């Protein structure tokens, strides 16, 4: 992963800010699949802690014999839960970035707190929330961190990504192009695809689009079409995710490798060619992203649209589909946009959100912090 | 064709409704929509109403001025009442006291079907201004919360009812 982000200075405690010795600041991207955590003592200019944790809680089955699970734990979290998925029913506390299982979310949040350096008098966290999260979703997030963090602020993820993506220490350099002055940000997560215009300010509502069509929908499409072709294959969504991670593609001519799924039917391995199904679902996602990008480009300030087209940034798990960046670039060029350049950041998006959250935490004033009381 | 008295009553009630709506939209910063009402819908309604209301032009103007003044006042009072209620609720919940501001986005959004439904900024805040962004977000969240507690159009409805004309039979019964 991107260790250079740990070296990125975190602007904090600007003139007039309140400082509280012994306070630990946390930047948190609570993701549907993976959570990214960064932390630094208040006043420190660099993140001291950075962790990526699979957002999973596993409840160990009653019939698991002693000694099978390390420490005979009854609840496993993160990578440990994934490793023991046969013995511990895995639960994902979030769906589409929103908490759907509060007890699991609280266990997970407590685990995050345990990963932080001890000895702080107070822990304050800025937490990224999906751009479209409503009040109920925010209240659920508040409930999940009740008793875990002393104070919290919830900020839409696109804002934090913009903050995190900008390297303030290089703003004065002639060779540094400030990416937030004119960029189109596309985040393809598990539950939603979010697209926003960055034009030197935090995106307003007219500069953001969000559609509930992302990685999870692609998985469902693949599963549905594979089951239609091979009704008795016993394919599951988890298996589809594995297949997608290995074989997803757009632009079939030059990026596809045959997607062959090995499934067990009646105890026998069976190899299925699911290339067409995977390709069709990924193409549908590309088409959706293309349409969203076109809509926002037309809303951009005409004075900067040329720069913006040269700085289209695709992030999130969906951006890891083979050929996605080139595919999007090709479609935009075919649509008539000139000098388009699509840059794929991959999964580092989580780091940018968490880093942006840590930067925001460093500059927040006392009036911004909320007590997550019940 | 001259409107009948029933028509003029309906027309007047439409004028009242859209005048209040314009005041709310202005308070929410929806200037484009305010412009549409003030330059399009309302002048047409007023013209038709004034032709059939059997009042002198001066009396019509006076009636309209009174409506505009009262509508603005009622909307301001409605927002103040709502802010006080929300402040009380927020203090009990331990949330920051996020008083609604004029640069905020309320929860209702008629167009832009795929725009996110969450808490959003209305005005542009430079990326360097993190405290400003956090202030605006807190205010926007407060506004969204306030609207969920007490929708502004509901709280202003009784004021609007004072200005609408009812059928003669209904007025007699009420009297």
Topology:
The complex is a heterodimer of chains A (374) and B (175).
Chain A: H1 4-7, E1 23-29, E2 34-41, E3 49-54, E4 57-60, E5 75-77, H2 79-83, E6 88-91, E7 94-95, E8 98-99, H3 102-115, E9 122-129, H4 135-145, E10 151-156, H5 157-165, E11 183-188, E12 193-198, E13 208-211, H6 215-229, H7 237-247, H8 252-255, E14 260-265, E15 268-273, H9 275-299, H10 305-309, E16 312-315, H11 324-335, E17 342-346, H12 349-363
Parallel strand pairs in A: 1-9, 9-10, 11-16, 16-17
Antiparallel strand pairs in A: 1-2, 2-3, 4-5, 4-6, 7-8, 11-12, 12-13, 14-15
Chain B: H1 5-27, H2 31-52, H3 57-93, H4 130-149, H5 152-163, H6 168-174
In sequence order, what are the helices and strands of chain A, one letter per element?
HEEEEEHEEEHEHEHEEEHHHEEHHEHEH
* CA radius of gyration of chain A: 22 Å
Q: Characterize the largest beta sheet of chain B: strand count, sense, and whether it forms a barrel.
A: none
Q: Would you tell me the overall average pLDDT of chain B? A: 77
Helix run count of chain A: 12
Describe what this molecule looks like in 3D:
The complex is a heterodimer of chains A (374) and B (175). Chain A is flat. Among the domains of chain A are: 56-91, no CATH class; 177-211 and 287-347, Nucleotidyltransferase, domain 5 (2-Layer Sandwich); 215-280, Nucleotidyltransferase, domain 5. By secondary structure, chain A is of the alpha/beta class. Chain A has helices spanning 4-7, 79-83, 102-115, 135-145, 157-165, 215-229, 237-247, 252-255, 275-299, 305-309, 324-335, 349-363; strands spanning 23-29, 34-41, 49-54, 57-60, 75-77, 88-91, 94-95, 98-99, 122-129, 151-156, 183-188, 193-198, 208-211, 260-265, 268-273, 312-315, 342-346. In chain A, strand 9, helix 4 (135-145) and strand 10 (151-156) form a beta-alpha-beta unit. The two termini of chain A are 37 Å apart. Helices cover 35% and strands 23% of the residues of chain A. In chain A, helix 6 (215-229) packs across helix 7. Chain A has a 5-stranded mixed sheet. Chain A has 12 helices and 17 strands. In chain B, helix 1 (5-27) packs antiparallel against helix 5 and helix 3 runs antiparallel to helix 5. With 175 residues, chain B is mostly helical. The model of chain B is unreliable at 98-115 and 171-175 (pLDDT under 50). Chain B has a domain at 5-101 and 152-174. The A-B interface holds A 14, 129-135, 137-138, 153-156, 159, 162-163, 166, 180, 194, 200-206, 208-211, 292, 295, 359-360, 363-365, 367-371, 373 and B 93-96, 105, 107, 109, 112, 114-127, 130-131, 133-135, 137-138, 141, 144-145, 148.
């Amino acid at each position: 992963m991107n260790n250079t982000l740990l070296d990125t200075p975190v602007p904090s405690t600007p003139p007039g800010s309140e400082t509280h010795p012994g306070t630990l600041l946390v930047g948190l991207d609570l993701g549907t699949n993976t959570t990214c955590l960064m932390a630094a003592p208040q006043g420190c200019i660099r993140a001291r802690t950075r962790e990526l944790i699979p957002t999973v809680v596993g409840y160990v089955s009653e019939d698991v014999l002693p000694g099978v699970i390390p420490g005979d734990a009854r609840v496993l979290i993160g990578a440990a839960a994934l490793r023991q998925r046969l013995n511990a029913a895995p639960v994902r506390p979030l769906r589409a970035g929103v908490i759907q299982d509060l007890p699991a979310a609280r266990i997970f949040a407590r685990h995050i707190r345990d990963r932080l350096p001890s000895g702080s008098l107070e822990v304050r966290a800025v937490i990224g929330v999906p751009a479209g999260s409503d009040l109920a979703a925010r209240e659920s997030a508040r409930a999940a961190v009740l008793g875990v963090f002393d104070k919290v602020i919830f900020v839409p993820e696109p804002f934090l990504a913009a903050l995190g993506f900008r390297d303030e220490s290089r703003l004065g350099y002639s060779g540094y192009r400030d990416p937030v002055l004119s960029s189109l940000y596309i985040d393809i997560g598990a539950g939603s695809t979010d697209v926003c215009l960055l034009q030197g300010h935090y995106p307003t509502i007219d500069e953001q689009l969000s559609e509930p069509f992302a990685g999870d929908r692609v998985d469902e499409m693949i599963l549905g079409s594979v089951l239609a072709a091979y009704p008795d294959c016993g394919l599951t969504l988890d298996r589809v995710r594995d297949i997608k991670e290995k074989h997803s593609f757009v632009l079939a001519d030059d990026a596809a490798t045959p997607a062959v799924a090995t499934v067990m039917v009646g105890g026998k391995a069976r190899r299925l060619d699911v290339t067409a199904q995977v390709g069709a679902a990924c193409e549908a996602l590309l088409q959706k992203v293309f349409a969203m990008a076109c809509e926002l480009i037309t809303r951009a300030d005409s004075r900067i649209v040329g720069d913006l087209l040269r700085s289209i940034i695709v992030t999130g798990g969906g951006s890891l589909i083979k050929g996605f960046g080139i595919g999007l670039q090709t479609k935009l060029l075919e649509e008539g946009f000139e000098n388009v350049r699509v840059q794929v950041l991959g999964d580092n998006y989580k780091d940018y959100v968490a880093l942006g959250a840590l930067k925001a935490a460093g500059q927040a004033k006392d009036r911004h912090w909320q007590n997550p009381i019940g | 064709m001259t409107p009948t008295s029933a028509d003029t009553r309906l027309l007047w009630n439409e004028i009242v409704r859209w005048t209040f709506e314009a005041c709310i939209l202005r308070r929410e910063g929806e200037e484009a929509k305010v412009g549409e009402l003030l330059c399009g819908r309302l002048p047409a309604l007023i013209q038709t109403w004034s032709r059939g209301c059997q009042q002198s032009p001066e009396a019509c103007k006076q009636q309209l001025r009174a409506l505009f003044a009262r509508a603005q006042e009622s909307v301001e009072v409605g927002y103040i009442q709502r802010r006080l209620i929300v402040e009380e609720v927020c203090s009990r919940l331990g949330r920051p006291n996020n008083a609604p501001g004029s640069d905020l986005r309320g929860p209702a959004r008629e167009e832009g079907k795929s725009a996110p439904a969450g808490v959003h900024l209305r005005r542009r805040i430079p990326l360097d201004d993190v405290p400003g962004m956090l202030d605006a977000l807190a205010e926007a969240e407060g506004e969204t919360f306030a609207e969920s507690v007490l929708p502004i159009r509901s709280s202003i409805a009784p004021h609007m009812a004072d200005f609408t004309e009812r059928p003669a039979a209904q007025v007699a019964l009420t009297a």
